[in-house]
Amino acid sequence: MDSYKRFSFYIFFVLVAVALLPACSGYKAVTLESKLVIPDTFTHVKDTGNTATSARQFFTDTYLQQLLDTAIKANPDVLSALQRVEVASANLRSQGAYLLPSVNLNANAGLEKYGDYTMNGVGNYDTNFSNNINSDQKIPNPTPDYFLGFRSTWELDIWGKLRERKKAAFTRVLASQSGYRMVVTSLVAQLATSYYQLLALDYELKVIRKNITLQNHALEIVRIQKLGGRATELAVQQFLAQLKRTQSLEYQTLQQITETENMINFLRGRFNGKVDRDTSINILKLPGIVRTGVPSQLLLNRPDIRESELQLKAYNADISAARKAFLPTVNLTAYTGYNAFASALLFNPGSFAYGIIGGLTAPIFNRGQLKADYQRTLAEGQQALYTYQKNILNGYMEVMNTLKGVENFQKYYDQKRQEVDALNNAVSVANDLYLVGRANYLEVITAQRNVLDAELELANTRRNIFINSVNLYRSLGGGWR
User: Fold this and answer.
1) Which residue positions does the secretion signal occupy (predicted)?
2) Residue 317 falls within a domain, yes or no?
3) How far apart are CA 415 and CA 403, in angstroms?
4) Which CATH number goes with the domain that contains 60?
5) Based on the structure, what is the number of domains in the chain?
6) CA distance linking residue 218 with residue 147, whole number of Å
7) Could you tell me the residue range of the domain that residue 443 belongs to?
8) pLDDT one digit per residue (tens) for the chain, 481 residues
């Protein structure tokens, strides 16, 4: 008997070894890592330190701050991003539950008719003639089966497969939180950009209406001169055409203001509403200096880079779990409760029963499916790696472009402002010369058109400075708290 037991254990361990060897071979541990070398500094950009400006210090306009506060609470994209965090958190709780035994309350009732030539049929028939049982223990045929109690199953995580899945789920919770911050940052950038665009359009409308007044005055003068024989109808029509061109720009600008206000309300999660603002963009204080720091700090500040980095870590855990899925699983199944073939005897103390069984399951015919899952997870991990590297490259490019953009547009604005001053003087001189007959009407019209175009371009340049500042703040991982 002892030799039979030893032989049985020998066969058992041989089968376990046969199951383990193919599972462990051919699937080495894989860890996906970025080999992208980040530059130590931003090329041709002066280092400004390593501390980012807070959002409220950066956006000092109180009207913009109020818009941002209301938008964070009601914007559909932000609310959707919050739900993605909830989904990831629920998935983490689900994966964590797999590490614990599952316990279910069972209340079962069944009936089975045994044939005369079955093992249970013959065994039960003979048992009923035994002198060792009483009348309550005789087995009827058909045989009822009642059970009331608890059943439990538990997969022992001896290889760490379930822990890797939980690790992946936890990392994705962190990634979803970074994703939420990325959505908030994008919303702040969109809303601030639209706000500054609106201020620029307000200034453009002011410039256009000022020029309409000047051109109306010039048209009246040339009409009077025509009556006196000092001007021709051609001059009158030229001044009139100039006026109509400027008046058409007024309606175009009004439409742009309407669309921009509607965009701001959309970002705030509203159908309509007044957008409060009372500051001209030309006198509005520029956002504070943003400290860029070294490029590697983008990994800590930019939420999209942080999210893609965490997604890469999650896929590394997925790859490890998919690899360990080839290994055998060890399961424990247990039950305890009352079990009887007669309902009247179900709660009899003699009906109390319990049992436990352990089993080892190794994949054989479903290895092809596991292999496909492993290869798919590996490919998705590679994709996450490329996304991570792309976000790093994109972040570096955005910081470079916006840093130089703020600098160059500021210099461009200074030159354009001097141009506008010179053209305003030219309009005044042209009007004076025209009145004394030393300049023709075309020179007056040209001077008026040039100053209008230059003032509109000045407003656009100022807007571009603000937009580049906002983009710089976003590209450095700014957001809103």
Assistant:
1) none
2) no
3) 19
4) 1.20.1600.10
5) 1
6) 102
7) 32-96+173-308+380-475
8) 556 555 555 555 555 555 555 554 446 677 888 887 777 766 655 554 444 456 777 888 889 989 999 999 999 999 999 999 999 999 999 999 999 999 999 999 999 998 888 888 888 888 888 888 888 888 888 999 999 999 999 999 999 999 999 999 999 999 999 999 999 999 999 999 999 999 999 999 999 999 999 889 889 988 988 888 888 899 899 989 999 999 999 999 999 999 999 999 999 999 888 899 877 787 787 776 555 555 666 666 789 999 999 999 999 999 999 999 998 899 999 999 999 999 888 999 989 999 999 988 888 888 888 899 999 999 999 999 999 999 988 888 888 888 888 888 888 888 988 998 998 898 889 888 888 788 888 888 888 889 889 989 988 888 888 888 888 888 878 766 5
Cβ-contact 165, 177 below 8 angstroms: no
Asked if residue 45 belongs to a domain, the reply is: yes
Spatial separation of the C-alpha atoms in residues 231 and 236, rounded to whole Å: 8
Whole-angstrom Cα Rg for the chain: 40
Q: Which residue has the tokens 């914007």?
A: 75
Beta bridge partners of 108: 147
Q: Is the peptide bond before 142 cis (omega within 30 degrees of 0)?
A: yes
Question: For residue 278, what are the CA distances in angstroms to 207, 267, 294, 451?
Answer: 16, 20, 38, 25
Query: What's the rounded Cα separation, in Å, for the pair 157 and 159?
Result: 6
* Residue listed under structure tokens 């009827």: 140
Tell me the residue type at 282: N
How many CB atoms neighbour CB 78 within 10 A?
A: 19
Name the strand (E) or helix (H) holding 236. Answer: helix 233-267
Q: Are strands 102-112 and 143-156 parallel, antiparallel or unpaired?
A: antiparallel
Structure tokens at 290: 């943003």
- Count of residues making up the chain: 481
Of 452, 449, 447, 442, nearest to 235 by C-alpha is 442
With CA atoms as reference, report the closest residue to 396 among 332, 319, 315, 301.
301
User: Would 433 be classed as within a structural domain?
Assistant: yes
**What is the four-CA torsion angle of 221, 227, 229, 235, rounded to 10 degrees?**
50
In a domain, 117, yes or no: no
